[in-house]
Amino acid sequence: MKYVLYVLGIFILDLGISLTIQSDLGTSPFDALLVGLSINVGLTVGSWEIIIALLLIGCNSFLNKQRPEVLGLLTAFITGTSIDLWLSLLHNLITPETLYSKVVCFGIGLVVIGLGTATYLHTNFAPIPVDRLTLIIKELTRTNLFFSRTFIYLVFLIMAMILNGPIGVGTLLTVCLGGLILNYFMPFTEKVLDRILIPSSTLVCQH
């Protein structure tokens, strides 16, 4: 059951990412970097997700002084593939024209990202390397998720600006609200998912 929730969480997260990209108001700095690389260098957004993940796994290994988390690559592969899938599906279905529809599309995307991230992180199985980095920085700086997430976002924001990624008011909102939304959803998903995961693990023990 844990693995089902893990994959479901990633699919929810990627739907949110794709909605923010489609909103045309600007995406999170990390996704803006991926889109910027896709436009300037080639390859799909999902392919860059996998390439950057490889680099981040190395970085996390160095900071954590532990062996590289190879499972993080599996997460990145699923994430990259499903981002490309969602983008191709939404490309024809959702193309917001008015400012109102763009704001609604972005707002839903931002909330869905928070829910998806909190869901798959709670399964504690192979975090996306950028989320693992968030947790490592939280530990190293002895701060909270909001601080570490915002710090990482600012670094990616500078890189995305260099590559002319889709940066807009949405990017600013993601930097300011991304950590808060994640912080809000973490206890909520913990309560709900524990009800699902604990009975299923008890059943496994009984067998």
Commentary on this structure:
By secondary structure, the chain is mainly α. It has one domain (2-198). Helix content is 83%, strand content 0%. It has 8 helices and no strands. It has helices spanning 2-23, 29-41, 45-64, 71-93, 99-122, 129-141, 145-162, 169-206. Helix 3 packs parallel to helix 6 (129-141) and helix 7 (145-162) crosses helix 8 (169-206). Residues 203-207 have low confidence and may be disordered.
What would you call the quaternary organization?
Answer: single chain
Strand content: under 5%
Taken from the alpha-carbon principal axes, the silhouette is: globular
**Number of DSSP strand runs:** 0
Give me the strand/helix succession: HHHHHHHH
Mean pLDDT: 83
The percent of residues in helical segments reads over 70%
What structural class do helix, strand and pairing data support? mainly alpha
Cα-atom Rg, whole angstroms? 17 Å
Number of domains as seen in the coordinates:
1
Q: What's the total helix number?
A: 8
Low-pLDDT windows of residues: 203-207
Major beta sheet summary: none
Could you tell me how far the N terminus lies from the C terminus, measured between alpha carbons in angstroms? 15 Å
Looking at this protein, list some descriptive labels.
mainly alpha; 207 residues; globular; 0% strand
